[in-house]
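can u do me a favor
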């Protein structure tokens, strides 16, 4: 791969997709001219301030980023991080996310949760609620509204059926929510979708609902409060916080009892974004390693020309190609099936789910390992905050956890194989590109699924890793040849 392709996200995407992407070229020009410096300043400043009250004692819960941060954030919104997805350009939103994540993975998070929020409002909100909240999220200018997705509470997020204690009570044609959310990205968003349990609903996931919660009540007062901002590893370019809901105005999405489907749709779209962001971080880490290796002379020879380093770079480039093809397949399938209504999903939707789990598992871990390797290539300089390479590892660790860590992807992936036969759909999908490998691996999966539940969970990772590796290799044949 030519250096100019590796050192530019737009060049890489145009090379891989074999098409020109002028809207990305324009956005990359901004990032190179101004965005990099703003992003670095925000990261080095650490956790932003939360201004809870104005000077007159009124609650305002204002996230106090510098003005340049908001200008940086709005660049992606106006370029189409959300609106392109709703103008028959669904996959283009993911490409804007890729470019953003190359420079600042944390900044892709606001676009991700806004994108997922808009999707479920578009699909499941009552017409008057959709008309109230969706158009402001699809604006092309600085007045665009942001979204947020708040599911997790203090006891964790993987087992929502057991850990969601926020209560929803009917209030005329609307609802009120009372509870506390613990890991909430994009504090201050104008509208959020929130998991809650209707009063009197059964225990478990079937009692969950997904609700639209605006930032402001009908009377203009705050509808939710920010308790505090989290001081966390990396991702300082998105505020993560605790949210207090106290009789907060809310609107149910879809039919009662179907909330878990809507929640999973939000998570699946966010996972696709995470896949793209992870690969973009891989490319950035490779670029930082290459820049150093080409500029460093050791033992009389350029580091990049030494056989071991040259082989490592070649291997990492191959891993980047494979990871991109896996992530891009999840994005293309999302564009194809995302409008399918719950719960009447097609086989194609279940295939999308499995590919997305495989891609999330594979790309996030590849991002961590590539960022770690880039630090090693840069040696001591890679550990210093002033050069930005260590930041990539901090950011990668969050990508590995967001929207479910590896074990969650494994277990959910095994579940869709077992209940929906998605592995058979997958191997049929991949067979044109690697038939020789598909048949024996399908036999392994079929045999694995006959095991008892404890055995399946104990030995799931090795099998899941092999399926993900095969999928990536086969999809590389599809997209690259």
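np, heres the sequence
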């Amino acid at each position: 791969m030519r250096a100019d392709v590796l050192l530019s996200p737009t060049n890489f995407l145009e090379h891989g997709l074999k098409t020109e992407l002028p809207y990305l070229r324009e956005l990359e020009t901004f990032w190179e001219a101004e965005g990099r410096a703003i992003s670095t300043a925000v990261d080095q400043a650490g956790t932003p301030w939360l201004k809870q009250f104005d000077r007159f004692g009124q609650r305002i819960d204002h996230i106090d980023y510098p003005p340049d941060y908001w200008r940086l954030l709005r660049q992606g919104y106006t370029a189409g991080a959300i609106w392109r997805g709703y103008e028959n350009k669904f996959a283009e939103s993911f490409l804007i996310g890729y470019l953003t994540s190359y420079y600042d993975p944390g900044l892709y998070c606001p676009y991700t949760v806004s994108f997922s929020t808009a999707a479920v409002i578009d699909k499941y909100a009552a017409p008057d609620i959709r008309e109230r909240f969706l158009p402001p999220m699809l604006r092309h200018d600085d007045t665009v509204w942001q979204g947020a997705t708040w599911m997790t509470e203090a006891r964790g997020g993987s087992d929502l059926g057991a850990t969601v204690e926020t209560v929803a009570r009917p209030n005329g044609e609307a609802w009120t929510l009372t509870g506390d959310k613990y890991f909430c990205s994009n504090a201050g968003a104008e509208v959020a979708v929130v998991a809650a349990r209707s009063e009197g609903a059964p225990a478990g996931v079937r009692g969950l609902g997904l609700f639209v919660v605006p930032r402001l009540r009908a009377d203009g007062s705050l509808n939710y409060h920010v308790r505090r901002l989290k001081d966390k590893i990396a991702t300082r370019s998105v505020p993560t916080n605790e949210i207090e809901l106290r009789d907060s105005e809310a609107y149910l999405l879809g039919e009662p009892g179907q909330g878990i489907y809507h929640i999973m749709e939000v998570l699946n779209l966010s996972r696709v974004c995470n896949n793209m962001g992870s690969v973009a971080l891989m490319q950035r880490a490779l670029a930082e390693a290459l820049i150093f290796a080409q500029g460093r002379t050791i033992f009389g020879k350029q580091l990049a020309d030494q056989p071991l380093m040259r082989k490592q770079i070649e291997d990492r480039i191959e891993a980047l190609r494979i990871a991109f093809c896996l992530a891009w397949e999840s994005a293309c399938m999302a564009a194809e099936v995302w409008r399918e209504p719950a719960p009447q999903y097609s086989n194609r939707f279940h295939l999308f789910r499995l590919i997305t789990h495989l891609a999330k598992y594979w790309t996030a871990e590849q991002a961590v390992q590539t960022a770690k390797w880039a630090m090693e290539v840069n040696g001591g300089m890679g550990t210093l905050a002033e050069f930005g390479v260590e930041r990539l590892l901090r950011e990668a660790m969050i990508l590995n956890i967001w929207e479910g860590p590896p074990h969650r992807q494994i277990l959910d992936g095994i579940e869709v194989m077992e209940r929906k036969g998605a592995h058979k759909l997958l191997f049929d999908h991949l067979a044109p590109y690697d038939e020789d490998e598909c048949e024996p691996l399908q036999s392994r999966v079929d045999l694995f699924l006959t095991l008892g539940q404890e055995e399946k969970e104990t030995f799931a990772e090795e099998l899941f890793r092999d399926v993900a590796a095969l999928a990536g290799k086969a999809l590389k044949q599809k997209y690259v040849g």
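The two ends are 14 Å apart (CA to CA). hope that helps!!
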